[in-house]
Fold:
Amino acid sequence: MQLIDGNAIAQQILAEVKAKVATLAPVVPHVVFVRVGEDPASVSYVSKKEKTAAEVGMKASLKLFPESVSKEELFACLDALNADASVHGILVQAPLPKHLPETEVFNRVSPDKDVDGFNTINIGRLVQELPNAIAACTPAGVIELLKRSGVKTAGKRAVVIGRSLIVGKPAAVLLLSKGTDATVTIAHSRTENLAEVVREADIIVAAIGKPKFVTADMVKPGAVVIDVGINRVPDATKKAGFRLVGDVDFEAVAPKCSFITPVPGGVGPMTVAMLMKNTLDAALRAGR
Ligand code: NAD
Structure:
C-alpha cells in the first residue's frame, strides 16, 4: 500500500505556480475573495487562501460584507470586479446567508474569472471538455493526485460516491474526460446494492460526508482510494475536542489498497493549490 501525500503534491503544484507567476511580471495574477458574514470556517478558509496566494506571488484582495448585505449590493460588487481588467479571479466563499441564492451569486461572476468553477457556464465547458473550462478545485485536486501518483486511469472502473455539484459530479466528469479516460459510475444516497457497486471499482472517490462510510468489505484488493470527506468526530484527547476523519475507514481499508489518501493530508491541501492554479490559468488566458 502506498500513501498518497497530498501535502507534498500540493507543495509541488504551488512551487510550479510560483515559478510561472514570476515569469509574468509586470503582470501579477490577482484574486479577489468575497466573504459575507463571519462564519468561522469561512473566515479560516479565506485567510488560508489569501496567505497561499501571497506565498506564490499573487495579489489577493478581500471584499467583506455583513450578513445583511442585499443581493443588489453584492451583485454591484461582482459586476465591478468582472469589469476590472486587473482582477483575474473572483471567489465568493460559501455558505451564503439564505437570502442570497448561491447558484445566482456564482453565476454573477464572469465565467472567465470564476476560479471556484461553480458557475453554470464552467460546468457546461467542463462537460464539453473545452480548454477554457475552469474545474472546481477539489475534484481537480483529486485528478492531480491520481496523475502525479502514477495511477493508471485509462479504461479503469472508477466509482464516485456522492453526486454534489462541488465534488461528486465534477469529479465524475473529470474522470471520464479525455486524458483520464476512466469508466465511471456515480453512486449516491439512492443507489441500490452500494457495496456491490463500490466493490467493482479500481478507483474509489469517496465524497459523502460520513465518517467510516467506506468499509473494508466494499473495497476490491488493490483498489486506489481517494477520500474527499472531512468529518469532525468527538475526541476528548484533542484540545479542540474533535479530530478530522475522512469518509473511509482508513485503518481497515488501507491494507487492501494499492494507493490511499489520508485525512487530513490528502485531498484537503490540494483544494487550495488548485485554486492557485486556476487563478494562474485565468490570468494566462486573460493575457494581462
Ligand atoms: P454533500 O452533502 O453536498 O453531498 C454528499 C453526497 O453523498 C450526496 O450526493 C449524497 O447523495 C451522498 N450520500 C449521502 N449519504 C449517502 C449514503 N448513505 N450512501 C451513498 N451516498 C450518500 O457533500 P459534499 O459537499 O460533496 O462533500 C462531501 C464530503 O467532502 C464532506 O465530508 C465535505 O466536508 C468534504 N469536502 C472536502 C473538500 C476538501 O477540500 N477536501 C472539499 C469539499 C468537500
